[in-house]
Design a protein that fits this description.
- This protein has helices spanning about 10-15, 20-35, 40-45, 165-175, 185-195, 220-235, 250-260, 275-280, 285-290, 290-305, 330-345, 370-390, 405-410, and strands spanning about 35, 70-75, 80, 90-95, 100-105, 110-115, 135-140, 140-145, 205, 245, 265-270, 310-315, 350-355.
- It is α/β, with parallel strands linked by helices.
- The chain has 2 domains: about 35-115, no CATH class; about 130-410, Alpha-Beta Barrel (TIM Barrel).
- Helix 7 (about 250-260) packs parallel to helix 10.
- It binds iron/sulfur cluster.
- Iron/sulfur cluster binds near residues 151, 159, 165 and 283.
Length: about 425
């Protein structure tokens, strides 16, 4: 059954939601559709000054790892983590017009954009031989570390259907010698080097594939995060440091062990979709090992350890509309997501959304994501819920993360 979707254009959405910031709508639409750099735009990309992509834990939208810009910043500081898409997919075109990098659509210039600045540490090598950008990639103000690029749900064919992590790892190993698993010493030395660039980084984020091994399920995942976080902690003089861990929803005892033995300060258990039926269908590994209701319970449990405003969950919005979904319309999916987000918020847990990108090496490669109007309504709804429940999201906002249109709104609404 096909899902009923809004067909409003970019300008029609702006007209219907006049208070919604144009540049955040543009970011959403670029995430939805992808982008394409013209050769003129690439002529001003300077790999000695600008940050190149290819190091991310998830794959690219056109399946290529060739050296090209990591991402863009808009005039208001909004990050656009959009990637090149095949030209036949109708992406936005990034062109050079009168010496300025411009985002264009159907030959109309929409707004100016800027390449990200490359961090000072990026090309340095560790004693182990690893290049530092493969240990920690960067966003404008945050270090992003993926200690383990293998997800064990894939071993049983139970990876999330929107995800390409293991296929991406295979490609990265072949093409850029990406290590599957990081050594704690390499992580510590890279963070130490990155922090020498005064004023650039305000936070660290860790995320990795799930590992259900151990005496109790996921003990091994937690043991390894403790090792890595302790190594990072050696770079700081304070007991707690600004680090967000995105991991599997483990038990209260397991997350307390991690909290007590490291300086991590905020926590994310990504539930991916806010509906039990869709969770079971889209995330079979998470469903079998933990389950939807238990995932929610563990999020709420974690607020008792991390405190208020320090726990959230992410959704890959639009993946619930793909394939054999139970939803018949975007509005039905939206109602369901916002009710569940409200329930979590009433228990101290924020929800942030990622615009789902169908990646060619994932099971949902040939599916469609949501409409622009759907994502605009979702961003407004999630931000309103957070405001109503007086929740803050500074550890996952436009400065720290830059991937969530709803948390971009925290500075506008
Ligand atoms: S848990 Fe799901 S989204 Fe996360 S790495 Fe594994 S398959 Fe991918």
């Amino acid at each position: 059954m096909s899902v009923k979707r809004s067909d409003l254009s970019f300008n029609e959405v702006l007209a219907k939601y006049p208070n919604f910031p144009k540049l955040i709508a543009l970011k959403i639409d670029m995430h939805r559709r992808g982008l394409y750099y013209t050769s003129k735009a690439l002529s001003i990309f300077d790999p000695t000054r600008h940050q190149q992509g290819g190091t991310h834990i998830f794959g690219t939208r056109d399946g290529k790892l060739t050296a090209r810009p990591e991402a863009l910043t808009l005039r208001d500081g909004t990050s656009v983590l959009s990637q090149p898409a095949p030209i036949e997919h109708n992406p936005y075109i990034v062109d050079l017009i009168d010496g300025k990098l411009m985002i264009t659509d159907q030959n109309e210039a929409i707004d100016e954009a800027f390449f990200w600045d490359k961090p000072d540490y990026y090309d340095k090598r560790l004693p182990s031989g690893a290049i530092m950008q493969n240990v920690a990639s960067a966003r404008p103000q945050r270090l992003y570390i993926a200690p383990n690029r293998y997800c064990h749900f894939w071993s049983d064919g139970e990876g999330c259907k929107f995800c390409d992590i293991v296929n991406n790892l295979k490609q990265q190993k072949e093409e850029i010698a990406m290590p599957a698993r990081l050594k704690p010493d390499d992580v510590r030395e890279t963070v130490k080097e990155a922090l020498k660039e005064k004023g650039r980084f305000t936070a660290i984020c860790l995320t990795a594939g799930s590992d259900f091994h151990g005496e109790k399920p996921f003990d091994k995942e937690i043991d390894y995060y403790i090792e890595i976080l302790q190594a990072i902690g050696e770079c700081f003089e304070t007991a707690r440091f600004p680090a967000q861990l995105i991991c599997t929803a483990v038990t209260k005892e397991q997350i307390k062990r991690l909290y007590d033995n490291t300086g991590v300060s905020s926590l994310t258990y990504d539930i991916e979709t806010l509906d039990e039926t869709e969770f079971n269908r889209v995330c079979p590994g998470k469903a079998r090992w933990i389950g939807y209701k238990e995932w929610k319970k563990r999020l709420i449990d974690a607020t008792e350890i991390f405190g208020a405003n320090r726990v959230n969950t992410g959704i890959v919005s639009g993946s619930e509309l793909a394939g054999d979904t139970r939803f018949t319309s975007e509005d039905e999916a939206l109602d369901c997501a916002l009710k569940e987000a409200d329930d979590l918020a009433s228990n101290g847990v924020s929800v942030v959304n990622m615009v789902w990108i169908p990646r060619p090496k994932s099971p949902f490669a040939n599916e469609r994501n949501g409409s622009l109007e759907y994502y605009v309504k979702l961003a407004i709804g999630l931000q309103e819920i957070r405001r109503r429940h007086k929740l803050e999201i500074d550890f996952d906002d436009y400065r720290r993360c830059g991937n969530h249109p709803d948390s971009d709104l925290a500075r506008a609404f």
